[in-house]
Design goal:
4 copies of one chain form a homotetramer. The first copy, chain A, is an alpha/beta fold. Chain A has 9 helices and 5 strands, in the order H-E-H-H-E-H-E-H-H-E-H-E-H-H. The longest helix of chain A has 18 residues.
Chain lengths: ~220, ~220, ~220, ~220
């Protein structure tokens, strides 16, 4: 049922941004959780990226595909990478995961141990690199937007983000450091230390500003890939 | 450090039960968590199995190898199956896992979701079967020995055990139903509804009676494989 | 906000079942969590109890007051018993608590340790008895209706229910053993081992049959108090 | 058993720092968890405070009493305040609690909700103030000493510490801000961002430097009370 919905979403919202006449467009898969699942909905960050490409007359150069499923953790990505990524033969994969690995510790008792998080992340990278797919890594932006590190999961989000930064560095891969970018943005734009409604609607999922912000941050890296 | 310790354990305690002159012995790997890690220590269930074989003059027919690591969950087995199982080319693998998948929900917030437990279990079975390795599945015996289902994790242990029974049935594989066997034993031998000291020392890990009991239960199935 | 809603609820739905001309009606407070909060809504178990009283021409004998708040655990009852119970000078209090003490372990990491559950329960009983209020104790019915004890929280629910049974016995107080009653009902009426839709809508909250069932179980005890 | 051990500890280690001839010494109770329980052991922060008093010839002015029990959360303090604090008629109580309220979320599923933490804290303050006892409040120092807020519980510790700061301010009570003091110390003395061994032995409990540090921080406030 969930799978059905997902593919419906994908076939409905996936953005085959104009089949180029001569050049094959760069096929980019956004691989993640509910934040990415929402990215292909109207106003979502992947839709916004598509609009940005259109304005720059780059629409024919990129094919943007959302592959986000709500509740996914790193090992869910691992388990479905054959079906949802490798079989689609992308040129680029942008991995945006980690919120649930941390959050589900408190909400379900089924978060991911830090060392296992790294192991599965490395296993994913290994398979993507073996298929000559270029990869960019995102840090998990936020579970709560307070800027004084008093959001419940801040400690873990900082730790898991650092593990992702280390993975990017170790593997020579581009990093989209959303965690840092969100904090920097909130330090300027969240003077009352609110836990939501700056870049998120509910501490985690992106509001309109947040979707544009993520699209911008991703484009900074994607355009160079 | 942990890995080093493990291999030390294995080289020290693994039981290469006599290399048979003519017939190659059946190589059996016990693949699991701390209960199996303790199985290769003096008095452990794997050691006891070895002693049982010796008494029956079957020592030369079997090579018993412990591959248990404390704290392991189903996806840990998955992550290390290449190194610790496939590379050793066993004839038989006995999978004994599940306690930590349930227990770590409460103790670390990093248990395993039931659907992911099944997915990783299936992925392990698929790889073992692809390598023509025979497999037997164990249900997780106990986290607490009370017989009125008032041990905290009884609900989950019952659920995960049922998932393992279903996997065995679906894949036509032998089942060593330790969960059921422990309960049956306790119903007869634990009249005061104690939570430990019947088959375990601490609600989970096996005491001497428990190690012998597991060895017996395993032998019932192993001798037919 | 939550408190406002609660009192609105109470003033709106509390059932001042006819001020008797000569005899003061027995004032009964139902003290609990979201299940009791829903009890004063149309179709809720407290409303149904009121209807049962009306049919038996006992309406003037009882004043039924709901004092349930969603998410409450034993220590929430303790913290608000002055405001919501003692100040209302009831003759009888029916305590129906325990689901969240168990459930919130997994869903928020903030369940109640078993020994603290008993301590706060005893503190509540002590204060009620000091005020000469008669008390009946309910066991928490269910988090999931499967009958083979494979609902995740079954172990804890069985344990906490036993603690409540012990408290009733030790203090010589009437027990409304909903946990046992629900299981007995499901063993007869849930042949497919469904986790909901027999007496609950969502594994926890009562459907129409469930509300009537709880009203019936409560009446069996209440009529004798 | 636990209680027995506790009182043994207290009678053994409590420091009746010289019964003053003429002036009654200031009776100070340290009310907390395992950190305070260890405070009365050799090298513990309460013992060190006693030694500091002796060096300053103030031994006769103070009677220092440890009332710490391992694993305690705010509501444990509430439940035992009659026995362990009020009945001893102290002049001053120093409350040092919060680590387990946060930590037990992940390790037992039985941490304390933030709003309930405040409610029980307020209930304790109310009872102490009703008995004319002066109170000082401590923030929980650390679960992990990393300085980049990447310790798992940093988010919650920051939040709960802020709640304690607010309680101190609202009630006009002195604050011993160990959380801030530990961070400041680590920023200077933990250049490698280690998670322990600066002021703690195990991320939580105090090493010798930590015990002296806490004694110093407490004295700064206690001497003015």
């Amino acid at each position: 049922m969930k799978r059905f919905f997902r593919y419906l979403k994908l076939s409905f919202f996936a953005l085959p941004l104009l089949a180029a006449q001569q050049d094959k467009p760069l096929r980019v898969i956004f691989f993640g959780d509910s934040i990415t699942q929402a990215g292909v909905r109207p106003g979502g960050y992947i839709v916004k990226l598509g609009e940005m490409l259109e304005k720059q007359n780059l629409k024919s150069k990129y094919e943007l595909i959302g592959a986000g499923i709500g509740g996914n953790k790193i090992y869910d990505l691992y388990l479905r990478m054959e079906d949802d990524v490798l079989s689609k033969k992308p040129d680029v994969v942008i991995i945006y995961i980690g919120v649930n690995d941390v959050w589900h510790k408190a909400s379900h008792g089924t978060g991911t141990d830090p060392d296992k998080f790294v192991k599965f992340y490395e296993a994913i990278l290994k398979k993507l690199q073996a298929a000559n797919i270029r990869v960019a890594l995102c840090t998990p932006a936020a579970i709560g937007e307070r800027t004084d590190f008093s959001n419940q999961q801040d400690g873990d989000l900082n730790q898991y983000s650092q593990m992702i930064r280390n993975l990017a560095k170790k593997n020579g891969l581009p990093l989209i450091d959303l965690r840092k970018a969100f904090l920097d943005y909130n330090l300027k734009n969240n003077p009352n230390n609110e836990e939501k409604n700056i870049l998120t609607t509910d501490r985690v999922h992106l509001n309109e500003v947040g979707n544009q912000f993520v699209a911008d941050e991703m484009w900074k890296v994607l355009k160079g890939m």
